[in-house]
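Comment on the following before class.
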Amino acid sequence: MGQMHPITSEYDYLSQMVPHHEDAITAARQLRRSNRPEMRQLGQSIVTTQTAEVGKMKGWLEQWYRQSPAPSPSGTTMPDLSGLSGDQLDETFLQHMIPHHMMAIMMSQQLLMHGEAQHAEVADFARKVRDDQWAEVRAMRQYLAQWFGQQNTPCIPQVPGMPGMPGMTPGPHPGTPGGPTPTEPSPTGT
């Protein structure tokens, strides 16, 4: 699992989120080969949504941070899925995409909590990334439980200087016997 660096500015957020999204897009394209329509749909949704978001973020970087270094991949957090198929493809994707999404959620929450967004559209974007990916995490947890009997959430990445996400409880997914129900992220970004 790649390590996320603390978000200390709007530029940090955008420049880290671009390669992070590109990593997710590459992995999600592999779901075209899934036998499950739910997984094919999830993959297509991630590719479509995050491709548009990458374009938006690159535009902002060009407009506002032209003098700063361009985003560069800092190492993939997703495994190579090209040799996998069937249940192995679906399960591996879910086990890795949940913590991958959690990294994006935490990056977005960190930007919002610390008031680092310099432009209202970036703050709105971060809220949307946080909320949309949290909804996908819930769905992916349900798939792991339903199809593979996994009741525990794959590891949540540790972020230096950020002990955890308020209201986002790791552990069994909602609805499983004995599992906690995570609270929703605050719509205000706090």
Confidence is low (pLDDT under 50) at residues 157-190. Residues 1 and 113 are 24 Å apart (CA to CA). The chain has four helices and no strands. Residues 120-148 form the longest helix (29 residues).
